[in-house]
Every structure is written in structure tokens, then in C-alpha cells.
Give the backbone structure.
Amino acid sequence: MNRHRSEVSSSTRTLRVIAHLLGYPSEELREHLGELQEALHDENALGKSRLAEIDALIARLSNEPGLSSEAAYVELFDRGRGTSLHLFEHVHGDSRDRGPAMIDLVKTYEAGGLLLDDGELPDYLPVVLQFASTQPNAESRQFLGEIAHIIRLIFSALVRRESSYASLAGALLELAGERAEAVSIPDEQDIDEAWAEPEVFGGCSTEGQASASANSPTQPEGTQPLYFIPKAATSSASSVTKPSSSDTRRTSP
């Protein structure tokens, strides 16, 4: 990112630390966890209990094997929409409104003096926080308040999963002037399950083949193509589930 403003909020370093901690726990990030923790405590923009929770997250990332942290991160943030760090995933899903919303957000960044690097998605929460950190205190707080309802959904999903990453979403709610309280959220479907291949012709057993033959006596010769559709769509003939997508492109810490 290229920053062109010198005005920053009083929670500048805290927002940037949270942005880094929400990123992929690469080896480079893990090497700087001590510095991030020090910056967080030096600014002291969060309450003691919240700082203690984030300290626990940092300690876990510092002590557990890197591959374990990376695998847990992918499992947490890349499977299902509830914990997605792409904010428009929670608002627009895969609708056509997502593209124009991305463009509007980029324009907001540019008006605020922030230019995205190639490959950075504007609705990725760490990018959003980097932008908020460049704004004066009042504007930063207002900006966070405008997305607080989305952050609350992510916070609630992380609390449900008993993830220590919930401490970061909770911290953002506090910085937005909101209470960090979880709300009721619907059960989310795992992405792999949503794209599971449905059984075709009653399965591959001889019973299934016999059943298919009995039900389709005039079935033409030759094979038929298999279509991969969301598993949920097969549970009700009256409902159609739109396939979901998960963009896992991230910014580097």
C-alpha cells in the first residue's frame, strides 16, 4: 500500500497490529510477533482484558509449529462464509452488487490518500484496517462504526468456534465504540460440503444401478455428464442454493 497522508488516528498502531494479526500467519509474520505485541501495549488503546486475550493469541502463534498455525488459519477463515475476512461476502455474497461495491470502496481509499497494491482486494479486512489507520481519529472511528455490523457477524462466528481470533474482532468493535457482544447467527455450511458431488443414479452399488434402471427404462445408451452442484440444493426441490466462492488471495503482512 502507498500512503499519502500524515494524519493518523490515536489507534493507528493498534489497527495496524490487528491488520497484521488477521493476516496469514506466515514465517515472516511470526518473526515479528514480539514487535507487534510491544506496539499494541505501547499505544494502550484497548482495555486490559482485551489486551490479555490478544496476548494469548500471540503466545499461541509464537509457540505452536508454523504449519499448525497456517493450517488452522486456512480451516478457520477459508471454509465457510461466516468467518470470511472479505466483508462484502457477508453483504453481497456472489451477487452482481459486489463488483460495484468494490469499485466504490477503492474510490473511498483513493479519496483518503490510499492506493492499493496489485492483487489487494479492497474488502479484505486487513486492507480495510490499514486504510482506517491512516485516518484522523474521528473519521477512523466513524468508518469502523459503519462496518461494525459486519465485524459483529465475524466476531460471533469466531466466538461460536471458540477461536482466539475472536479477540481481534472484539477489539475492533471496541475501537468502533461498540460493545463486543455476540449475536445469534445461522448455521453455516462448509464450503467443501456445499460443493460435494451428489449421488448419481442412486450411488455406485448394484442396488443403485438396478434402481436407476427400473426408474428409467427408456434411458438412452451411453454415459451422462456429472454436474457438481451445492449439496444443499438437493435437499429440497422447492429451494435453489446459489454456489458460493471463496477468494483466498491475501495481502502480505
